[in-house]
Write a structure and sequence with these properties.
By secondary structure, this protein is of the alpha+beta class. The chain contains 15 helices and nine strands. It has a four-stranded antiparallel β-sheet with strand order 1-2-3-6. A three-stranded antiparallel β-sheet has the order 7-8-9. Belongs to the 'phage' integrase family.
Length: 452
């Protein structure tokens, strides 16, 4: 990219081939002039020479932008619009360029990454920048976006506090719009930075205004939220069994779902898609075959407690053919991750907190989600003496950092606590009542006994 006194040569790639354009300032306003394609005879040297001519005209005050469609502009006594492909062309808008950028990402990065980037663009960046030309996005514009996201997050939080939450659609069944954390806002700015980085490489912009810490919010490091002791894990299982036994609730598989999240470390979508053909109870294995990544496709060795739980769950289930879902909805359909969070886990937490209070233990940590139960599985494996490489393989991770953090955290626990975790998962039978075989009103299989 060549520059000359407030002007520069830009090399671009159009659908019809590679070509050149000029960008320069006239009376403080940015102008963009398309020159032509290589197969029309344009080269970098010729474009640089044209830039010198145009900037000379600008300094003399005689440059006039050619109109779209071939209107001429006088410069040095000749019609520059007669040059191959010469026209004043608008830069792509952010919407146009970001759409193309995202399409190029397909197949280059993990599907979940593309899914997140599409979410960040659709729900956050495009509503703010959609019709903005790329070169009109500057530091002030990025800062405006950041402030707008903070204000939006405050509105969402206030609406929830007054009992009138904003929703992502019409009707009370539409998902609640929850406040964005500083870290979440920063991640959307990371996507903006990535889009503008490519725009800079293509010569559409001179600098990337989304770069740097000053464009981000100060975000505290998120506190780890997972269960790393036997007592809260047992309480959560007991609470799920209590709700399963309550005739006021139609759902009867909370205990099995939560046990699978805790003791197999499945992602939400992996659990929702799980079918009976994926579970080999005889050999204590669970096959994850429909994950979106190569690392995600894995074989999980069932812990004794989970093998017993799934065996009992299969005996109670009506549909157990190989292609039947292990955890269908009440109508037989596939669950969604929101269903796991809102209908399975969230109602269980206050019951578990009550049980913990009765047992003189602190309540469950705030922010517990189905995905955090996956983190709990890592802690359990470490407590049971599993080496970090095997933990990574069982979780379907390729990045060792999370596994090593979990390893360091659990190993700081006193040996007695690690031993209690080991005893919990090693049990080959599990009754998840509230202390006695009759307290929950539900049996989980012949010969099952209480853990407490």
């Amino acid at each position: 990219m060549s520059r000359s006194r407030n002007g520069q040569v830009i090399e671009r790639r159009w659908k019809s081939g590679r070509g050149y354009a000029l960008r320069f300032l006239v009376d403080g306003r940015r102008q963009y002039l398309t020159l032509g394609l290589e197969h029309d005879g344009w080269t970098r040297a010729r474009a640089e020479e044209e830039l010198l001519n145009v900037m000379a005209d600008v300094r003399r005050g005689i440059w006039i932008p050619p109109a779209r469609g071939g209107a001429s502009s006088a410069a040095n006594g000749k019609d520059r619009s007669a040059e191959p492909g010469a026209e004043v062309a608008a830069l792509p808008t952010f919407h146009e360029f970001a759409t193309d950028w995202l399409a190029r990402r397909e197949g280059e990065v993990a599907p979940r990454t593309v899914e997140y980037e599409r979410w960040a663009l659709t729900h956050h960046l495009l509503p703010h920048f959609a019709h903005t030309l790329l070169d009109a996005i500057d530091i002030a514009t990025v800062d405006d976006y950041r402030r707008a996201k903070v204000a939006e997050s405050d509105r969402r939080r206030t609406a929830i506090e007054v009992g009138r939450p904003l929703r992502a659609g019409r009707g009370r069944s539409a998902p609640t719009l929850r406040p964005l954390s500083p870290g979440s806002i920063n991640k959307t700015i990371d996507v903006l930075q990535a889009v503008l980085a490519l725009a800079r490489e293509y010569g559409h912009i001179a600098d990337n205004p989304a770069t740097g810490r000053r464009r981000r919010l100060k975000a505290s490091k998120p506190r780890p939220v997972h269960l790393d002791a036997a007592e809260p894990i047992q309480a959560l299982l007991d609470a799920a069994a209590t709700l399963d036994a309550d005739t006021r609730h139609r759902m009867r598989d909370r205990h099995a779902i939560i046990a699978t999240l805790l003791f197999a470390g499945l992602r939400a979508h992996e659990l929702c898609q799980l079918r009976w053909r994926d579970i080999d109870l005889t050999n204590a294995r669970l096959q994850v075959s429909r994950s979106k990544t190569d690392a995600g496709r894995r074989t999980i060795e069932l812990l004794p407690i989970l093998r017993a739980t799934l065996t009992a769950h299969k005996r109670r289930s009506r549909a157990t053919d190989p292609d039947d879902l292990v955890f269908p909805t009440g109508t037989g359909g596939q669950r969604e991750k929101d269903n796991l969070r809102n209908r399975v886990l969230q109602p269980t937490i206050p019951v578990a907190d009550r049980l913990l209070a009765e047992r003189d233990h602190p309540p469950l940590p705030r922010g517990l989600t189905p995905h955090k139960l996956r983190h709990t599985y890592a802690s359990i494996l470490v407590a049971c003496g599993t080496d970090p490489a095997t933990v990574m393989a069982q979780l379907g991770h390729t990045d060792p950092h999370f596994t090593l953090r979990a390893y360091a955290h659990v190993m700081r626990r006193v040996p007695a606590e690690r031993a209690r975790l080991d005893v919990l998962v090693a049990r080959r039978s599990q009754h998840t009542g509230m202390g006695t075989s009759g307290s929950s009103g539900q049996s989980y299989g012949e010969g099952e006994s209480t853990i407490g």
